[in-house]
Structures are given as structure tokens and as C-alpha cells.
Specification:
The longest helix is centred in the C-terminal third of the chain and has 18 residues. Helix content is about 40%, strand content about 25%. The protein has two domains: about 220 residues, Rossmann fold (3-Layer(aba) Sandwich); about 60 residues, Alpha-Beta Plaits. It has a six-stranded mixed β-sheet with strand order 6-7-8-3-9-10, with helices on both faces. The protein has a four-stranded antiparallel β-sheet with strand order 2-1-4-5, covered by helices on one side. By secondary structure, it is an alpha/beta fold. The chain has eleven helices and 14 strands.
């Protein structure tokens, strides 16, 4: 089956700038796949998304949707591409329904189809009771849900989402993630950029990490998280903390003592055997916490590495 999107050596250099905003970026998105783009501000994420939507013209490289050249078939392709950003705004003097109805007309949807899809999307996003309200005065969460509804109105095959849960309350962000996951189950493909690591972990099948306009690594969220450190096993030892520290030294296990607690850094698959060895040594603990590495740990480490490299220049 053909990829929904294939990007090959995509490059963008702004006029008058000595550096490349995006340099020879290549990736693909398979049918039903969600690809995340992770990186610090200025890494090239927004520029890449803008080129994928035709808002910016690349300096070189190619973009292929559904096996067709984007530059030659842009109008046709955009009928199957949706996009949304949490930073977009709606015409304030129109109602929510009217806003979406106009977008539906632009996509060539007939009246019956527009009405059905608008009501269905608003209901799934918890906004149906507000359909006749003016867009003015909507909260950030309400506006974001309408923008996302717009992105799905024409039933696209792939949707590009830029910071879909930025600055939203936890419950609204949860609603949006549930909606996106529901669309993923229906076979939709996605590209998502976000600084919310929970978004990237829960929604993405793969992630590409961009640094200074280039892709530095491509992997799964789980593999990226594990690349930072092993699982951290926290044990409340009481007066046996020194005995546990001696055990850690003997077994070459990195550890940190924090009063009556000790942190052991072990592989996830080694937790059970480590606890069994402690038991055989009659080293007991009163409480236990297991902290697996997260994508947030990876991003923090990435930022620290970036700042260190910048300071050394």
C-alpha cells in the first residue's frame, strides 16, 4: 500500500538568511499511522508543516501525497488533507455553526452532508449545545475544539495538527486526545507537533526529532524514553539503606540515597530479579515506587544537551 505522504530531502532557506531553516528532511507517513515531530523552538517544525500545507515554497526537495506530486496537484490533494493549530482564530461575528458551514461550502459539501458532519463533530467534541453561539468570547479550549472540527469536516485522509492541546485544561486536552484516537482507529493518518509529551506518547506511532532544521533521530516514543536512562526503582529502606547501597555497589547498579530512600537504576526486565536478590540477602523495604523513563525525560535531556552545545560555541 502506498504511503499517504512521502517527503524527500525537503529544504528551506529564507531569503537573506545564511542558515537553512530546514535541511534535507526526509520521512514518510503510512496509512493509519501517526507521526510526531518533536523539537525545541526554532528546530524547523513549523516551517516543515507550512511547506506540507503549501503555505511556504520549499527551496528544494519533494512532497508526495497519495502518490502524487504536491506541487502539481495541490488543489486536488488538499481536498484530502486537514490541518489545525491551537493558535488559529475564528471570525468572531459568526456563530460556531456558521463558521463550520462556510468551511464546508468551501470544500464543496452539500447542505445535508454539511449539517450532518457539523453536528456529529460538535457532539463528539462536546460542543453541540454551543453550536449557535457566536465565536467571540469562546475560551481557548472551546476555540481549539472548533478548529479541530473544521479540520475533519471534509473527512480528510491525513490531518496535520500543530500543538493541538496547547494551553488547555487537563480535561479538555483529554477530550481532544480521545477524539484523535477515535479518528486513528478509523484509519486516519496524522502528523502532530506538540510540546505536550503526553500527546506525543499517547498518540504517536513514531517520532522524528528535529534539531537545527535536520532530523537527528527517528524512533518510537518508548525507545526514545529508554535511551535516556533505565527504570528507576525507589525503595524505602529505613535502617537498611546502607545494606542496600552495598548490594548496589556489588552488582554495579547506579544508586542515589535520599535519607531513608534509595534509588536503583535498573532495566525494566531486571526489576523482578533485583527484588528477588534483595530478598535472598534479607534486605527488606517498607515501600516501593517504580518510575519508568518518559518522553518528557528524553526532551529535557535533549534541551540540556542543546544548551550545553550552544554555550560551548
Amino acid at each position: 500500500m502506498k504511503n499517504v505522504l512521502t517527503v524527500d530531502k525537503l529544504t528551506k532557506q529564507y531569503r537573506g538568511s545564511p542558515r537553512m531553516a530546514v535541511e534535507k528532511v526526509s520521512f514518510h507517513v503510512a496509512p493509519g499511522e501517526t507521526l510526531g515531530i518533536l523539537g525545541a523552538n526554532g528546530a524547523g517544525k513549523t516551517t516543515t508543516i507550512s511547506m506540507l500545507l503549501g503555505l511556504l515554497t520549499p527551496s528544494s526537495g519533494s512532497i508526495t501525497y497519495f502518490g502524487k506530486n504536491f506541487f502539481k496537484h495541490r488543489s486536488e490533494i488538499m481536498q484530502q488533507v486537514g490541518s489545525a493549530t491551537a493558535f488559529a482564530r475564528l471570525p468572531s461575528r459568526l456563530s460556531i455553526y456558521r463558521n463550520l458551514d462556510i468551511f464546508g461550502r468551501l470544500y464543496g459539501l452539500d447542505r445535508k452532508t454539511r449539517d450532518y458532519r457539523i453536528n456529529a463533530l460538535l457532539e463528539k467534541l462536546g460542543m453541540l449545545s454551543m453550536r449557535d453561539r457566536l465565536a467571540t468570547g469562546l475560551s481557548a479550549g472551546e476555540t481549539t475544539r472548533i478548529i479541530i472540527a473544521k479540520a475533519f469536516l471534509h473527512s480528510p485522509q491525513i490531518v496535520l495538527l500543530d500543538e493541538p492541546t496547547a494551553s488547555l485544561d487537563v480535561d479538555i486536552a483529554h477530550t481532544i486526545r480521545n477524539f484523535i484516537n477515535d479518528q486513528r482507529e478509523k484509519g486516519k493518518s496524522f502528523i502532530i507537533t506538540s510540546h505536550n509529551m503526553l500527546d506525543m506518547t499517547e498518540l504517536c506511532d513514531r517520532i522524528i526529532v528535529m534539531e537545527e532544521g535536520k532530523i537527528s533521530i527517528a524512533s518510537t516514543p518508548e525507545q526514545l524514553a529508554r535511551s535516556v536512562h533505565n527504570t528507576k526503582l525507589w525503595l524505602l529502606m529505613g535502617d537498611q539503606v546502607e545494606a542496600c547501597a552495598a548490594f548496589a555497589k556489588e552488582n554495579n547498579i547506579p544508586f542515589v540515597i535520599d535519607q531513608a530512600w534509595i534509588e536503583l537504576e535498573v532495566g525494566a526486565q531486571e526489576i523482578a530479579s533485583t527484588l528477588l536478590k534483595l530478598n535472598k540477602r534479607s534486605i527488606t523495604y517498607a515501600d516501593i515506587e517504580i518510575k519508568h523513563p518518559t518522553l518528557e525525560d528524553y526532551f529535557i535531556a535533549l534541551q540540556k544537551k542543546r544548551r550545553k552545545a550552544k554555550a560551548q560555541k
